[in-house]
Amino acid sequence: MVYGESSTAMHVPLAFSWRGTLPEITCYGALAWVRGSKLWHQRGAGDQPYFLRSLAKPLQLRCWAGELEAFLTPQQQVLAVSSHNGEAQHLAVAQSMLAADEAHWLQTPACGPLSGAAVRETSWHHPCSGNHAGVLRLCKQRGWDLASYREEQHPFHQQSLAALAAGAGAFGGIKALATDGCGFSTPAFTLGAMAALYADFAARRDENGLWGNCGKFPSLLGGTGRLDSQIIRAGRGEVFAKEGADGLLALAVNSRRFPEGIGVVIKLAHGRDVSCMEALARTILSALGYHQGEKSEGLGPNFTVVSAIVPESL
């Protein structure tokens, strides 16, 4: 038996951790590759929709990136699309985005940093505080209501959701809406649609400074030990990465070889798994010609990745 060769189920084996001759841990999931505007490769999922979660942040705010550049610093722009760890560097930039008399508008749930450090829980520690602060600055600039900025009917969400649906193109629009943990609406798309959105983000990376600023300040996008920050460092300005809650990772590539843009989105069936996701990302990046560096320490078992996650034509 050759493990991981079937590609007909919604979730298929993507990686294994072996003990002796048997797989002790099997990571199931699905992924899609889009090159330009065409589906290039897919394993699992088919038309199954998934919520976009924090993968939405750079896709939404790029609609207003030109405006944001007028009143947010490059560091603030990165934090506005981040899902940060809640480190001191993140709190400092997030808090700089709102004046002291505006901070009360921030409605992210109070929590501690992702590190689990024992500190007083605040709204600023929430991974989405920079995103919310950036949206509040945009709302203030446009004269939109601040108190209702989290509500689905707010102009920010209506316009950004419409842009996402249009950007998915032939891959289909929004399949469902739900409320994310931060209180924002999160749309559901197929993995192909998500990958198409990131391929387009890659193809049009030079239309604003968001891509380049994330390359200059990758630690603000995630933080210490975070996979998306590590991937952006390894990508030499040609690769963007964004983690999403509960087992999502998006990659976007624009290089001399792929100027039309590549989008890759991975979904792990069992949710967040840093060890497995790093192994998958490492395999994909290596196939594209990028070296991520040494495996992060303390991430658990070593995984063998199913070769079929990469297109045969790559």
Q: Can you describe this structure?
A:
- It is built from eleven helices and ten strands.
- It has 314 residues and is an alpha+beta fold.
- The protein has a single domain, classed as Beta-lactamase (3-Layer(aba) Sandwich).
- Strands 1, 2, 3, 7, 8, 9 and 10 form a seven-stranded antiparallel beta sheet that branches. A three-stranded antiparallel beta sheet has the order 4-6-5.
- Strand 2 (22-35) and strand 3 (38-43) form a beta hairpin.
- Helix 4 (88-96) packs parallel to helix 5 (129-142).
- The longest helix has 15 residues, at 274-288.
- The model has no long low-confidence stretch (mean pLDDT 93).
List the helices and strands and how they pair.
Layout: E1 12-19, E2 22-35, E3 38-43, E4 49-51, H1 56-61, H2 65-71, H3 74-79, H4 88-96, H5 129-142, H6 155-168, E5 176-179, E6 185-190, H7 191-203, H8 210-216, H9 218-221, H10 227-234, E7 239-244, E8 248-253, E9 262-268, H11 274-288, E10 304-305
Antiparallel strand pairs: 1-2, 1-10, 2-3, 2-9, 4-6, 5-6, 7-8, 8-9
